[in-house]
């Protein structure tokens, strides 16, 4: 039966996905099955996309990279597990849901905790299948029977156990500290989740008794508890330890002058006001000098009663009025309108972050950091990506204790209990007794996802953890290195004594064809599913990985995907030529009988190609492997070998055997068209994805 003249991905992809799933080939063997066959394990834990989000181009990139490795190692006969899952995504999901509520004229404050949680859960459940189906459309050959969600009951249980263990080991503490707080999202963030941007703000030079000092935040002056100078600054040394009287907008007040090395003598006049409740540096100074904290900005983003007549105003409204009143009283000496500084913003809503004093739970990170650094030193874990290990080491060496408390509903509630009006707390999964009230904060999403490789394997099929941990490769974008990779190393080593992965493959960001970051405002965002529908999954996969290297961004647009569709057509046409012409040209030929002039040369060349692609995949040089197999198939096999066959220089059986080998080499990269051609040319050989990787002769 002859093949269709052209390859149409729409006629094949859905059928092939169904055939793969029915075959069960994606299912990883159990520990006993793998041991019985003497199979070496190869494991990748999928980075869990947000459960309620559709796939974006970054997801498509990691799916393509990881699926290439999984298909390759499966064909090599290894016990291969690609464990999929999705993330509840904490504040990101709640933020999206609250936007939905806002369109209905409602807010989170209209519902009690249990109701709001249930509403978000239903919303996530409605959308949770989208990401999975879209990954399947791209060809993801994951073991879907081992799928996990970060809020599965058994996952939550393991997360709570880790927290309890950290607490027992003295690595958890509760403290009033200055935290990064978003007054719009209503939650604290760790330092890693704050986005900094340069901003031009006025720098106000305000009279403070005998001094003039510079500040960009005059609205916080009601929380000042000292003024500080550098202890070696000769201009002010005689003032250290003395008390000054300052004229304020709510009346005169007294402040002590302190000396602290954190003060920069070159900034402004060399004198700074110390507001411990609203600036991280001032908080540190306050801790060293025993200064009280006066909170001027509340969790609602409004000025508190400490601001006197300005109470109830927003920060910006308060700043404007305070400046006007200071000017009216002659208390502003000058204003520098061109002062440029960095401010922290919420990575979700982009509102300015307020440093606010809140009692939170923290993890003492130093013991965890030290062991993660040892794993890097010993090459237990290797970071692939230019300069990325240096960046990871920098984060580890400078990491502050991790604030894991979040003031949101959607997440894993902290197993912490208090007696009414009692500051002491008890860590317990269930209530320790009558009169105890549970903490309302949830865990930082990264606390649960930081345990992902361990808890997904521990809560799956019997023996999975022993068989498949540590995992082999963790693939993700380099921008998530400090958020996730670092925390998985810290917690994974703490929980098991072993780093959770041998290699971290950090792919770059996917940019548009002009090298610009994809942005809705620019209008250059690429929808991967639109491209799959138009050009096929193979074309998108190959466009994403072709010639890429770890840690470097790549440009991908519709024209590149369109170009890679030509490869799918080329594979189909080559298969069609072999299918329709090989037997007709040499019907009696069987392997080893007829040797044409260039058969041996062909076989030697093919052997070299097998060796090169195999080495590149073993070395995780995925972009190079894609380039090699693309070029050798297109320019050598199609342009030279097929033409040599037409001239009678290469035998049809040799050409056919070569096609079988090249389809196997191409399969991890372009699984659909290769499976379709295999089914046409070699209909009695079963599924290509279940076949063995070619070996060098």
Describe the protein.
- This protein is α/β, with parallel strands linked by helices.
- The protein folds into three domains: 283 residues, Rossmann fold; 167 residues, Alpha-Beta Complex (Isoleucyl-tRNA Synthetase, domain 2), CATH 3.90.740; 138 residues, Isoleucyl-tRNA Synthetase, Domain 1 (Orthogonal Bundle).
- 41% of the residues lie in helices and 19% in strands.
- It is built from 21 helices and 25 strands.
- The strands form nine sheets. The chain has a four-stranded antiparallel β-sheet. A four-stranded mixed β-sheet has the order 10-11-9-12, with helices on one face. Strands 8-7-13 form a three-stranded antiparallel β-sheet, with helices on one face.
- Strand 7 and strand 8 form a beta hairpin.
- Helix 9 packs across helix 14, helix 15 crosses helix 16 and helix 17 packs parallel to helix 21.
- The longest helix is centred in the C-terminal third of the chain and has 28 residues.
- It is elongated and about 100 Å long.
- The chain starts with 12 loop residues before the first helix and ends in a 16-residue tail after the last helix.
- About 1% of the residues have low confidence.
